[in-house]
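Ticket closed. Logging final result for Class I SAM-dependent methyltransferase.
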Amino acid sequence: MTTPTGAPLVQQAVTAVLEEPLPMRLTAYDGTDVGPKDAAIQLRIENEEGLRYLLTAPGDLGLARAYLTGTLTGTGFSEGDPYEVFSLIKRDLRVKDLGKRDAASVLAPIVKALGTKALKHPPLPEIESQPRWKRHLAKVNPMSRAADSISYHYDVSNAFYEKVLGPSMAYTCAVYDAATDSLEEAQERKFALVADKLDLQPGERLLDVGCGWGGMAIHAARERGVSVLGVTLSREQAEWGQRAVREAGLEHLVEIRHSDYRDVTETGFDKVSSIGLTEHIGVKNYHDYFTFLHSKLRDGGRLLNHCITRRDDTASARPEPFTDRYVFPDGELASPGRLIAECHDAGFEVQHDENLRLSYAHTLAAWCHNLEANWDFCVGEAGLPTARVWGIYMAGSRLAFEEGWLHLHQVLATKTTENGDNGGYPLGSHWNA
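Final structure:
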């Protein structure tokens, strides 16, 4: 495909939309060759199918589809940690702010050359989830839909997660005091911080909703002498956590239950921890979620809600198409302000809020390092497309936390009574840097 002047069409389109020269090298099957030939990062569109992926879903979704199908290839970055290529694209690529008319004129020659198939996407990767509207039509029952979404994300392979997450099996933001901290040190510090904020005392009852593989439950029982009920919708997480509890000799204190948190009938818990569950709830369900947790606590009890948030609510709560189709089906994120407001509307009194944004960037870097170091095992365990998805997701998320598009907030609240009794929450400031 060339222009009347002989320039390849892809090359013509790329140079037409850039404000500055390409900071990497891009080649394509049609003879396109732009960018420095000695660039550290080099990308190639292998065939017409790869180009059609990019045309039919401009942005992250099209790039992911082409990469996952091998029709977009590259060198100069690790598949387990493609952070460098994301950083280059997001920080150094300068694209013109084209209107619809100008964008159409740039793409018109390519569309004309490809014909009617130009805007018909090639076969989708098998691991891609259905569009959100199709998922909702297929599963009208919200609890059934939630179970499917959790299973899609977490029931990949416990062996895969063991390699990526490390011995803690904690798939939530760790807490780093220094960049030189190990992942395990930082995860243990996170569990201890949650326990401190909840003021866990021997003999108390803790409800840990969305307990994952049981890391917080085991820490609370082992270090604080607390009785814990942990619930997770992931069967593989529950089975792994139940085995870990037995191996730790904590069956008398910890129960890991394969269950929707909404099926918990017990009440009167002293404390509730929710670490990484809110992202799956859906913003419109926040009120019901916090109201339910409020109902599980005794008067004066505490809630620690730890979750990813957006910087603000000016954008949609829904994730980018790649994340929605490949990582967190039905996941949504709101601002910390929305979280705090919903807590108060459900009857809580928020006592403390802390943003651990940069700690999450370090956590993601450590997970990518683990994936890269165990790449062959992870590919053998979960398959190449899934391993690639995790590399894309974690490296892209690291950049989002570094740049401040995403935050991680720990919100501590008390079930304060109508007469102002907050369970003896202490005077003074706490957990300051």
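The mean pLDDT is 90. No further action required.
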